[in-house]
Amino acid sequence: MLPRLPRLPRLPRLPRLSRPFAPFRVFRVFRVFRVFRVFRAFRAFRAPFAPFRVLFAAFALLTACTAPPSPPTQVVSPEASPTPLPTATPDPYQVGIALRAAGDLEGAMAAFSQTLALNPDFVPARLARGTLHLSRGERSAALADAQAAIAADPRDGHAYALLGEVLRVGYDDPSGALQAYRQAARLDPTLAEAIFPVRWRAAVEAGQIEEMVSLAEEYATAHPDNPLAAYYRARATTAQGTPRTAIGELVEALEGGGPAAVWFALGEAYAADAAWPQALTCYEQAQRQIAAGDASLGQVPDVSVADLTVGLGKAYLYTGACAQARAMFERALAMEPERDEVHALIGQALICEHPRPTPTPYPSTPRP
Q1: CB of 235 within 8 A of CB of 212?
Q2: Distance CA 126, CA 326 (A)
Q3: pLDDT digits (tens, 9 = 90+) for 198-218
Q4: In sequence order, what E strands does 21-89 have?
Q5: CA nearest 237: which of 270, 269, 208?
């Protein structure tokens, strides 16, 4: 048995107030008690509002799901006004071009005049307005614009081309027009092809055979494979007074067939050689091809369907088909009423239909 240890002496207990942290412990207990009371009071206060808190939470959730966030609104001051951007003034010349393309010739004329009021030496506006004047039959105004364009730029070939058109169409001066066309082609070689039809027509109207020959060679050089080259060569050769040479060239060109214009040129060559039956055959062939849709006669500048109709009438007349000749002449006159020579041909056809009776000789008895 182990020996029992002796009891230690019990230390004396310090008095309560002598403990250094006793006041703080009392304060802590008091603070916990106070917090508990406040919590109970808060719970008692919020208890009546519990249903409203549930409704508010549901309303907030519904609003967040359905309504997108609205963009921020920009407050504009009533004194502030937008600054207008400067707009470019339209070019009156371009406005005139657009109006002319749309068919508003009066508006185009006004726009071109406005352009020239701003810049009198602007050649394109001069040419555009002069062309409009010429199309309206105002030849003096067209001539003034053409001359002003040449004075503003003497090296402009288009100005001389307009002058040629004014002289040919407005003043019936094909010789003067031909000189203007030559100058235009000399200044601007690219215009030679574009104004070839009016150059050829002016040469035919002026009776300048050498110019016709030169133009025919120019066309054949530029278009060696075009069958209309034979047409221009034949017309120039016939005008030179050698229709048989033209006949030989055209017969060779038409061996494999050809357009109606070439058949018409062959008919004209036969007519110039007084071979009317052959001319009639060529004219009729050209007429059949035109009825089938051949448009080549409209591609040459110096003849029309009315010329073919007159040629047919002459061939009928000189081969004795007088009624058919008169019908052709009347049809041609309906196409082009200004052709005065057709009236004389109609008169010849009427005489052919109703020849003047010749008196019958009666035997006379000798007096006794």
Answers
A1: yes
A2: 48
A3: 999 999 999 999 999 999 999
A4: none
A5: 269
